[in-house]
Design goal:
Strand content: 15-25%
Shape: globular
Distance between the termini: 54 Å
Number of strands: 19
Bound molecules: iron/sulfur cluster
Largest sheet: 6 strands, mixed
Number of helices: 19
Radius of gyration: 23 Å
Helix content: 25-40%
Structural class: alpha/beta
Length: 502
Amino acid sequence: MEKYLYTPSKTSSSLNLWMAYPAKEEFALSSLGYMWLYKLSDTHDGIHSIRVSTDTPLPSCNPDAVAFSLSFDFDFMGVLELLDKCKIPFLAAERNDDTPLIFAGGPVITTNPEPLKAIFDFLIIGDGETTFIKVLDILKTKPEKNEALKQLAELEGVYVPGFNKKVKKATDELINVIYTPILSDKSYFKNTFVIEIARGCMNRCAFCTASYINLPFRCYPYEEIIEAINLGLKHTNKIALLGAQISAHPDFNKIMNYLCKRIDSGENIELGISSLRTDSVTPEMVKILVKGGQRTSTIAIEAASERLRKLINKNLKEDQILNAVKISRENGLKGLKIYSMIGIPTETQEDIQEFITLAKKIKAENKRFKITFSFSTFVPKPHTPFQWCKREDTKSLEAKQKYLEKELSKLGIESKFSSIKWDYWQTLLSRGNENLTDFLIEVYKNGGKNGAYKSALKSLNITPGKAIEGFALTDSLPWDYIEIYPSKQLLINEYQRLMKRS
Ligand code: SF4
């Protein structure tokens, strides 16, 4: 069942817009960015907006335009699946004036649209809210395709391949709080009212796109957040606060205290926070989470040793980690997941050894408290100071994984690892160029499993090259045409500053 927290537009519509999510509906319903843009289109005069996911039936009316939202590198599979279902040619150049305009936005597109750009007629780079409305205003006048693209290329944050050579990332001022506009029991986060309280992160860890593509760090006003919380709690008791660095909101404690008071007054509120910032975990914060029904949480330490945490600009000390675990245990959480990466540039066996030593200390100090370690491998990402770095060799990462699994299991600690193979393909997609489009189509046609990637590389005679091996600081990069702060020169300066710490 779906519960709308807004009133859809009732005006007659000139534009049939399919809001396409390249995965199952349960994930579409839990994607805050996608759902919010759907709400914006559904309340916009002249737009008939329809949600489409890979597992929902196709709408009966033909679209005039199809908007995709891409959050993950592998979302291209869902894009191609939906185009395939609609019998729309994959490449924009193969479509004629009568086929609908197909466009996309989201973090994957902002980070590096190169491998996918030939599929779309145009792309939204950066924050979507303001630009999306401007795009709809152009589309609903139904200009002829070429004229529409000409007008769209004039908008800040819109990249029309073949029309503009550079594009400036759109950065919105955060005024109206973004929250779950439709509650649903079919959502991955069932009937949960999610509120974005801040966007980006000031910490600027050297690998982190969540920080770098969302600079500057911005927060919503306190009053707006409380108003949104009040609206959400009228309809559900499950509430989650979202943001890469929510505890840096200047009124974070006030927001938590507001929720705490309501819980203390007898309301059955389930409160969720995706992860705690290790150096700012406080007993008060943990107590509120526990009161709100949270049993476990996550802290991200990101790297195996103190040296590496300094190198990546995480600057987290061992005693801060031990303290965060202690506070979590002493204040009622039942367990904690500790997340880290392996394969960070310059990482050695000594760093991995330091991690085991830390794990031993954590275990010794926190008996009967459930600790799980979760690892992924370093995937260098565009627009970060580590965008030039080499991806570590798969065999060497596998050896590190094996060693960590063995040593942690000796300590009785559970460990989980992301797939090294899939992280490899993610690196290729993240830093690839336009030559990858045919490769992605081939992967899709062959079912999208690991073998499909391997055979597509072979059959199309593609060498992963610098996307895996890394770039020189003097190289031009596939995504250089995106104007974003900090500039490439500032990223070079930051890379060199951090590398001196190795
Ligand atoms: S603290 Fe987390 S969100 Fe912030 S920059 Fe570092 S990794 Fe990214």
